Amino acid sequence: MNRFLGFVRKEFLHIFRDYRTLIILFGLPAAQIMLFGYVVSTDIKNAGVAFLDLSKDEITVKISDKICSSGFFKRTGDLIDYNDIDRVMKMGNTKAVIVFENDFGRNLMSEGKAEISIIADGSEPNTATLVTNYLTAIITDFNREFSGSSASLSLSVQSEVRMFYNPGLKGHYMFVPGVITLIMILICALMTSVTITREKEFGTMEVLMVSPLKPVQIILGKVMPYFFLSFIDVIIILLLSWLVFDLPVKGSLVLLLSESMLYIMMSLSLGILISTVSGTMQQAIFISLVGMMLPTVLLSGFIFPIENMPVAYRWISSVLPPGYFLVILKNIMIKGTGFFYVWKETLILVLFTVAFIGLSVRNFKIRLQ
């Protein structure tokens, strides 16, 4: 029995001495419960709404103030005419536009009813459904309060809901761009993350050390084959999205492919960076899978809106490249926008790519020394 207890004690000591095992045992569960507890939410917070008030009377002001003071929505602008709706929707900050008809207050008082149109961004079906449900509930609550204050009248504020870009609220309009973003970064980062570590494990690193190639040439040489193969993957995925899910590319196909090439290069350079800091192939694969999958699914806006997250998680999401490419995909594929609407996200991906390649070259030089 004493031998057995001694053996158990030895195993405990081995576990406590290995910080990587402790991170897996205690760090990952804590991180996951924090992520899922705060990120996985069906509540609406700080959703952007714009107003097209064609009446501009006291009642429309009260309804607008009630919506913005509810804590669920924030005002992103006041529109002049219907032509502004598509523009603000393409900018991405506005989830819905509230349209008050002409003579809204006069119609409500004289005819006993008036109409409000709710135009939501259908490129994110789940968010659009939540936003319209919340807005309808707020309008219904106002309708009840207003009718109660005018007991002698039967007043009714009627809401009409319409969806931009995705009238049928088809789920694959949300999932296909998200899956493309997830698959490409996982495949690209995973494929390249094992390249340098494979050289070290197989003992062929010495061949690279004595070769006349510079570190940047070695890095690019490792990346280029995977770049072309990954680009073929993008074409296959886009064809399947069109043929199977009937999801066309409404914007420029050339722009979409160019942005995809940039995202592939960024993902490959991230994989090379992971390989330069990993000691073994297993470690590189673990970092690539665990470090990329959960953040991409939870913090990129793929499933859960970023504006619903706490401030700390929004800051974390701002340093994750997949979120920016997801915005680019949805804008080009679903909304049909041009480069003017995605230039900021494109610039950020370029900066990520340059930073990852620079760090990879620097770490590789240190390895060679």
Please describe what this structure looks like.
With about 375 residues, the protein is of the alpha/beta class. The chain folds into two domains: about 120 residues, abc type-2 transporter like fold, CATH 3.40.1710.10; about 200 residues, no CATH class. About 65% of the residues lie in helices and about 10% in strands. It contains 15 helices and five strands. A five-stranded mixed sheet has the order 2-1-3-4-5, sandwiched between helices. The protein is elongated. The mean pLDDT is about 80.
Mean pLDDT: 80
Estimate nothing, just give the exact number of structural domains: 2
Beta-strand level of the residues, as a percent range? 5-15%
For the sheet with most strands, the description reads: 5 strands, mixed
Query: Radius of gyration from the CA trace?
Result: 26 Å
> Overall 3D geometry?
elongated
Beta strand count: 5
Number of helical segments?
15
List keywords for this structure.
alpha/beta; abc type-2 transporter like fold; 10% strand
Short description:
The protein is of the alpha/beta class and 369 residues long. The chain has 15 helices and five strands.
Topology (elements, then pairings):
Blueprint: H1 2-17, H2 19-39, E1 47-53, H3 58-68, E2 73-78, H4 83-91, E3 96-100, H5 104-111, E4 113-121, H6 125-149, E5 156-164, H7 172-193, H8 195-202, H9 205-210, H10 215-243, H11 253-277, H12 281-299, H13 311-317, H14 321-335, H15 343-368
Parallel strand pairs: 1-2, 1-3, 4-5
Antiparallel strand pairs: 3-4
Helix pairs in contact: 7-10, 7-11, 7-12, 7-14, 10-11, 11-12, 11-14, 11-15, 14-15
